[in-house]
Amino acid sequence: MSRVFAYCRVSTAEQNTDNQLQEIAAAGFAVQPARAIAETVSGSVPASERPGFGRLLDKLESGDVLVVTKLDRLGRNAMDVRATVEALTDLGVRVHCLALGGVDLTSAAGKMTMGVIAAVAEFERDLLVERTQTGLARAKAEGKALGRPSALSAAQVQEVGERLVAGEAIASIARALGTSRQTVMRARDAIQ
After folding, report:
1. Superfamily of domain 4-119 in the CATH hierarchy
2. Which helix (H) or strand (E) covers residue 122, if one does?
3. Looking at the predicted structure, is the pLDDT value of residue 11 above 70?
């Protein structure tokens, strides 16, 4: 006999998971109270980093069933949902999502649904990369400096050069400027 677990999540302390538990029970899933994991955590936190979800993973065994009301309970975006469902599938856990008609995401219909989710996840990732590249190109065209700001000002870089010409050691220059040896060496390399 498969054990049935419920994972319920809300984002703020003002909310509670009672409606999710009622919806799961109304769909015909009998979940013992000890197998209902409820937590209050932002949906922006990946499932793998949620304390309650971690406790759930410790309890789940092959053959168990996990029920959620909506896919967004499992992850912050399509990529996270996909990774979470794949990890659960690898454990031998069947995942049912009520918002998708209670479909078992490990069944043939569920695999098709996960294929669509995978395509959406890839699309989201591609859009993110595209937006990032467009933003970087625009910033570069506007003459904005990209990357980490320099640890040394132009005057300090010039001072590094003067001290090196005078024969001062890199470690000594780094101490005098309150920075690392690596920073001084990068300034030296930029001067040359």
Report:
1. Resolvase, N-terminal catalytic domain (3.40.50.1390)
2. helix 108-141
3. yes
Give the pLDDT confidence score for residue 94 in this predicted structure: 93
Residue 50 — very low, low, confident or very high, per pLDDT cuts 50/70/90?
very high
What residue type is 145 in one-letter code?
A
Type and span of the H or E element at 97: strand 94-97
CA distance 186 to 171: 13
User: Residue 169 pLDDT more than 70?
Assistant: yes
Instruction: Please name the residues in contact with 190: beta carbons below 8 A apart, sequence gap of 6 or more.
Output: 157
Q: Where are the domains of the chain?
A: 4-119, 154-191
Which amino acids are annotated catalytic? 11
What value, to the nearest 5°, has the Cα angle with vertex 101 and ends 98 and 105? 75
